[in-house]
Design goal:
Blueprint: H1 3-20, H2 22-27, H3 29-49, E1 53-59, E2 65-70, H4 74-95, H5 99-119, H6 125-144, H7 147-164
Antiparallel strand pairs: 1-2
Helix pairs in contact: 1-7, 3-4, 3-6, 3-7, 4-5, 4-7, 5-6, 5-7
């Protein structure tokens, strides 16, 4: 088994543990918030791509969220949350097969989160704090992690996105 396959398997195993352990579920709540941010931003992006607009994104303490959008294709906007977050997760997994790819993937997610924060997260303390903390954590991970630790982080985040979606 190649190193990339072992890392992906380990990421999947740890992800499965977070779903069956109450303690791990609480520890990994920030990853649920990351998924919610990306899920809601996918709705916003779909609205803009199909001629609509968006007003705000809120992320709530229980991990749920909402994006207020107007116009655009109702089908595209409604389905884009889960699809967008899952596609980003898959992209993270594929890109994180190499150290360079993992760094790029983590930076990409940080950029998407940053755009979401600057443009749409409003009046929502959980969303603002979680978004800022996650953004900083992603930037620091991309800057300081190396080798297999960086690849594992990218793949683990990707698996989390896919499973949570």
């Amino acid at each position: 088994m190649r190193t990339e396959q072992k890392l992906l398997l380990a990421a999947g195993g740890l992800t499965a543990l977070t779903w069956v352990s109450d303690v791990l579920t609480l520890l990994f709540r920030p990853l649920v918030y990351l998924n919610t941010h990306l899920h809601e931003f996918s709705h916003v992006l779909a609205a803009y791509l199909t001629g609509g607009t968006a007003s705000f994104i809120h992320v709530y303490a229980n991990g749920s969220g909402v994006a207020l959008v107007q116009g655009g294709s109702a089908l595209a906007v409604a389905s884009s949350g889960y699809v967008g977050a899952a596609l980003l997760g898959g992209l993270l997994i594929v890109m994180s097969r190499t150290q360079q790819g993992a760094k790029r993937a983590i930076v990409l997610i940080a950029v998407v989160l940053g755009i979401s924060m600057l443009g749409f997260v409003r009046g929502d303390l959980v969303g603002i704090v979680s978004g800022l903390v996650l953004f900083v954590a992603l930037v620091l991970a991309a800057k300081f992690l190396k080798g297999r630790a960086l690849q594992f982080t990218g793949q683990f985040l990707g698996v989390q996105q896919c499973v949570t979606s």
